[in-house]
Amino acid sequence: MSVIALDVGGTHIKGAVVENGEPVETEQWHTRAERGPDAVLDTVLRCADELVTRAVRRGAKPAAAGVVVPGLVDEASGTAVLAANLGWRELPVRRRVAEHLDLPVAFGHDVRAGGVAEARLGAGRGCADFAFVPVGTGIAAALMLGGRPFAGDRGFAGELGHLVVRPGGDRCACGNRGCLETIASASAIARRYALASGGPAVSAKDVRARAEAGERSAGRIWTEAVEALADGLAALTALLDPGRLVIGGGLAEAGEAFLPPLRTALAERLTFRPAPLLVAAELGHRAGSLGAALLAQDLLDGGAA
Fold it and tell me: Distance between CA 187 and CA 204 in Å, rounded?
């Protein structure tokens, strides 16, 4: 039995054909969100068609599909409430994909789906209560409680990137100032370094390399990012008491330049208790699509999709 999975992002759409829990076909397409919301949805449907074709070539039509998207989602109704990077507002994604494919479709939030994948297949295995925190262009969290993702009353739970850690700081895309995303995300690190150095734009990975080479400006930007993230994780820990913090996204791939200083900074902030285990995610960029496949399989098995 196979399912298809789509992880729709602002830059790329990642897809997979999954048989018996194992990805047997994977693909990635450009989202090209600048074309407008309708064009993005058309692209998602074409990508789904391609995955179905690949599955059929392997011997069987998929039994279900899983689709996960960023932003604010209503998982119960299958609606993308607001996916700003895609231009989607109140879009009934599950219904549109199900009608197009004539298949049952599971629908979810990309980060929460990534949390499900890390819980069952990755760094969250064996831990009922943990937070999956991908740090990339933005910052979010999947709050895994009792082995299940917690969405909150309106589906907004886990917006860690919009926790204010530096009141009065830089303006955030959400309209507030001093949000964690404005300091500790990969995009913020690159932007803040470009402003500080007056030079051409570089990536957060480049900033890290320059910091390791001893460049003072890069070192300051990198350290401020680590400290701000530690502030956010300390607040999350104080509220939820997770057994584990699973850090994903591009910055987690920095390894020794990122995780050990982050562990130290977090421990310094939790004066009244030990810090939870802080580890790197194991599934990388595949977490969202693997999570989408798991949601699709749950749907077939009669579980919560």
Answer: 7
- pLDDT bucket at 200, cuts 50 / 70 / 90: confident
Domains defined along the chain, listed by start: 2-114+285-301 (3.30.420.40), 126-281 (3.30.420.40)
Angle at the Cα of 227 from the Cα atoms of 224 and 230, rounded to 5 degrees: 150
Answer positive or negative: Cα dihedral of 148, 154, 157, 161: positive
Q: Which helix (H) or strand (E) element contains residue 88?
A: strand 88-91
Q: Which residues pair with 22 in a beta bridge?
A: 19
Name residue, tokens 């300390």. Answer: 234
Full-model pTM: 0.90
DSSP 139: B
What contacts 187, CB < 8 A, 6 or more positions away?
137, 138, 204
Is the Cβ–Cβ distance between 5 and 66 less than 8 Å?
yes
- 15-28 pLDDT, tens digit each: 999 998 889 999 99
Region of residue 171 (phi > 0: left; psi between -120 and 50: alpha; otherwise: beta): beta
